[in-house]
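Thread amino acids onto this structure.
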């Protein structure tokens, strides 16, 4: 996907998220146990604030630039108070934060160096992509609280599967946990182009964008696949072929966040 597509996705998905939140801030979010719609909206808006400042200030050094920003944002959250998630000011605040994020990311050169938590990609394009997918999944979460979910748009969802497998899987596998023994997972979008073969080795995942036979094949729409990878949908919601028991091991090898 291109920069403009990510920017438009953030604008669209944030607008849908805010519209859904207007149906009630106190509703529980089934896909985020312990969270209400209000807490999710506040969390996402705070993420927007933080990323906006990283990009706007050109923060590059974690200790010198990012840590002070983080401390300032923690203080801002404290000043809002514990009741902000249910405040009448929340949704207008969220819309404003989304608009500001879009403005800053739209004006930024995708190749501009900035800090990110993903070491291989230290530039603004990372945040343009990450915020599009962050917003799409949380939009779905918000809608799920009111029983009216809409799938993630196909092109965005395909890219979301790719991001989950090529960025989040290796980042999470680098943390303490189970080590792979060469297990192979074939992810296949049934509503368009998009196939990945993931081999989980002891030193990390090897991801190839290709059609190949794995120990287990996971098939579904791009939206369902990305929602499965983010643990929003159960394995029963998608089609599996091959060693279905192995599918349960995916989240053992790739620990959830």
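Threaded sequence (257 positions):
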């Amino acid at each position: 996907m291109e920069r403009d597509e990510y920017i438009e996705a953030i604008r669209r998905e944030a607008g849908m998220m805010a519209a859904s939140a207007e149906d009630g801030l106190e509703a529980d979010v089934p896909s985020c146990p312990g969270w209400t719609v209000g807490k999710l909206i506040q969390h996402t808006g705070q993420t927007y604030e933080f990323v906006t400042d990283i990009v706007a200030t050109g923060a590059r050094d974690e200790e010198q630039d990012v840590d002070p920003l983080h401390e300032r944002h923690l203080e801002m959250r404290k000043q809002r108070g514990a009741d902000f998630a249910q405040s009448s000011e929340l949704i207008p605040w969220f819309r404003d934060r989304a608009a500001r994020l879009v403005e800053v990311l739209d004006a930024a050169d995708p190749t501009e160096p900035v800090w990110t938590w993903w070491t291989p990609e230290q530039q603004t394009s990372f945040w343009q992509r990450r915020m599009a997918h962050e917003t799409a999944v949380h939009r779905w979460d918000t809608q799920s609280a009111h029983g009216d979910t809409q799938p993630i748009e196909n092109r965005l969802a395909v890219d979301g599967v790719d991001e989950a497998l090529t960025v989040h899987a290796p980042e999470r596998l680098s943390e303490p946990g189970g080590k792979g023994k060469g297990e192979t997972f074939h992810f296949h979008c049934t509503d368009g182009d998009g196939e990945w073969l993931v081999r989980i080795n002891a030193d990390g995942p090897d991801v190839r964008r290709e059609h190949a036979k794995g120990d287990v094949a996971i098939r579904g729409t791009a939206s369902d696949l990305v929602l499965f990878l983010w643990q929003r949908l159960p394995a029963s919601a998608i089609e599996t072929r091959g060693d279905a028991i192995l599918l349960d091991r995916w989240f053992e090898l790739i620990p959830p966040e």
